[in-house]
Design a protein that fits this description.
Elements lengths: L1 H4 L15 H11 L12 H6 L7 E4 L5 E6 L8 H4 L4 H13 L6 H4 L5 H6 L11 H7 L7 H5 L5 H10 L1
Antiparallel strand pairs: 1-2
Length: 167
C-alpha cells in the first residue's frame, strides 16, 4: 500500500511495541517493509494513544490531528477466520480518505461514550475492576459492539457464520 500511495503523501508507520529491539527486529526484517518501522520499547505510543490491542491502526493527518481513533484492523486476511474481518475494505477506506478526505470521523463519531472499549476502559476511573465482576455484568448485556465497527465495513458475516458452524 505504501508503494501504491506514497506519491499521494501516504506514509504508514508500523510501530512495534516490544520489550527490546531484538524481539521485533526479525519480524520487521522479514516483512522487508519500505516504510518507517520504529520500535517503541518504552510503550509510549500505547500510553499516548491508549492502545490496548495489536495490531491497531489509527489515522493521523498532516497536521497531526487524529482522524480515526485506534481501531483493531489488519493489513492482510491472515487472521480473518478468527476476527471475521477482511482487510481490503479497510484499505479501500484509507485510499478514499487519502484521495477525497472521506472517512475521517467527526468529533461526535470519535467520542463515543457508550462504546464498549470506553465503558470498560473507564472502569478503573470510577473504582471498578475491568477484569472483575463489573466487567462480567457489562459482558452480560450481550455481544460487545464497537462504535467503529458500524463505521468500518470490514466484518465478514460469512466468516462469522463459518466459525460458528465449526464450533
Amino acid at each position: 500500500m505504501y508503494e501504491e500511495l506514497a506519491d499521494e503523501g501516504f506514509v504508514p508507520i508500523a510501530v512495534a511495541l516490544d520489550r527490546c529491539a531484538d524481539d521485533a527486529r526479525p519480524f520487521i526484517e522479514a516483512s522487508a517493509s519500505t516504510h518507517p518501522s520504529p520500535i517503541d520499547t518504552e510503550h509510549r505510543l500505547a500510553e499516548l494513544y491508549h492502545i490496548t490491542n495489536v495490531p491497531t491502526m489509527l489515522w493521523i493527518d498532516e497536521q497531526g490531528r487524529i482522524c480515526r481513533p485506534h481501531d483493531s484492523q489488519f493489513g492482510t486476511d491472515t487472521f480473518a477466520a478468527v476476527t471475521h474481518k477482511r482487510f481490503e475494505p479497510y484499505l479501500e477506506m484509507i485510499r478514499r480518505w487519502l484521495r477525497t478526505g472521506e472517512g475521517a470521523l467527526t468529533t461526535n463519531e470519535a467520542l463515543a461514550p457508550l462504546d464498549w472499549t470506553i465503558r470498560r476502559g473507564s472502569m478503573p476511573i470510577v473504582g471498578s475492576n475491568p477484569f472483575g465482576p463489573e466487567f462480567f455484568e457489562l459482558a452480560a448485556e450481550g455481544k460487545p459492539e464497537y462504535a467503529l465497527e458500524a463505521l468500518t465495513p470490514t466484518h465478514d458475516p460469512e466468516l462469522a457464520a463459518a466459525s460458528e458452524d465449526a464450533s
